[in-house]
Design a protein that fits this description.
With 116 residues, this protein is mostly helical. Helices cover 40% and strands 9% of the residues. It has a domain of 53 residues: LysM domain (Membrane-bound Lytic Murein Transglycosylase D, Chain A), CATH 3.10.350. The chain has a two-stranded antiparallel sheet with strand order 1-2. The model has no long low-confidence stretch (mean pLDDT 83).
Amino acid sequence: MAATIPSLRTTSEAYGFLGLGGLHLTPRGRAVVLALAALVSAIFGLAGTQAMASAPPEPLEVRAHTVAPGETLWQLARGLTTAGEDVRDVVAEVKAINGMRTSDVEAGQVVLLPAE
C-alpha cells in the first residue's frame, strides 16, 4: 500500500503576500491605522499650502449710475463691453464691484460701473 504524502506548501503560499497571511486588524488597530493615515494626509496637505502676500489690486475707477425704470444689469453691461469682450464677464465684474449676488436691479438703485 502506498502512503500519500501531503503536499508541502511554499513559504509564499503559507504566509500570503509579504508574509502577512492570517493577519487581522482589531477595531483598535483599524483606528490606529486610520489615525496615522489621517495624520500623514494632513501633513502632506498642509505642506503644499503656503500663504503668500500678493500686491494689492489695482484701483478701479468707477462712476455711479442710477438705474432707470425698465433698465437691466445686462443692458448696462452691454453698453460697457468693448469689441471681443463677453457681456457675461462685464456682468460678473459689475456684480463683484457692487457686492451683488444676483443680476437683479431696481429702478432708483445706484450701482457702480467701471468708468472708461
